[in-house]
Each structure stands twice: as C-alpha cells, then as structure tokens.
Amino acid sequence: MSTSKQQLLDQIEADILQNNVCLDLAKQAKHLVMGDGNLDAELVFIGEAPGKQEDETGLPFVGAAGKFLNEMLGEIEMGRETVYITNIVKYRPPNNRDPEPDEKRAFWPYLLKQLQIIQPKIVVALGRHSMEYFLPNARISQIHGQPKRIRVQNGQLVILPLYHPAAALYNGGMREMLKEDFKKIPKIIELIKQER
To answer: What does the pLDDT read at residue 96?
Structure first.
C-alpha cells in the first residue's frame, strides 16, 4: 500500500513545482520540504514552515525544535519512524519570518491532499500558524491540548492544537504545558480507535 501512497505524495510534490506555488519563496529556498515519516502513520504533525536546517536537508523538524519533538515522542513511546511530519508552507521563508497568509493559503490544498493520502487518526497542529486553517477562530492559548473534530472536504479530522516546540524551547512554562499536552496523544488515539 505504501508504494502507491508514495507515488501519490510524489505527484503532489510534482504539482507544487509545476504550478509554481509561492515562486518567490521557491527562488530563495534550497529545497521543497514535503514531509517525512511513516506513510501509514496514525499521527501526523504539522508545523508552519521549514527553517534553515530543514531547508538545507530537505527534511522537516531536524533542528533544535525537531530534537525536542523527538524527545517528546520518546516519552510517549513512539519513535519518529511511526509518525509523519510536515509543514503547511513547504519552502523556508526568508530569515525564518512567519509564513504570510497568502503563502499558507497557496499550500493549503496540497496539505489537505497529503492528509487524504496518509489518513491519520489524529493531526497535531504545532503552533497557531498550522492551527488557524483547521480552527479559524480559535486561540491556541485557550485550546491547546484539546482535541477537536472538524469537517474537511470529504470527511472528518481530529485536530489536536499544541504549542510549537520552537516556541516552547526557551519558555519553561510553555515547555511544561507542551509536554503535558503531548502525553495525552496515546489516549486520544485509543479513544478514536474505540469509536470505529
């Protein structure tokens, strides 16, 4: 099954390149960072955009925030190889600035296609940039750690908004909150499985 999923994901990448999505970003980026991980993952993490190290390697979450993410995955006894990780915006914005609304809008349909192919049980939105398209009127400070079921084009998704690991790295209080929220993930997956 994974081979055909890989072909479908490769097609999304080809479409992004062919459609010149966010050409200004593409021109100054080294890599289009599509995503990485298990194509049959129950858990998909979505960040906002690649940073410097991600742009250089072509892989998402390989810098300090990625190491913290790996550490938290270890604490819930999940390896990075069991999950899939991507970003809304697939090119690094210059100087690591926040992605612009039109950049997120341009990549949104491709992200939805990725999720349709992988079909995770739960989508973890890391930070407000990746949360706001799924939960447009929500504030991350009020709903972090609370799973929400939403309707998307042709089905439903369970979204879990969490603080972004990069924001939590240097903020002790937020770091603890993120770790506590993270520990809820296995239970949420269990509950979703029981529903089916």
So the answer is: 85
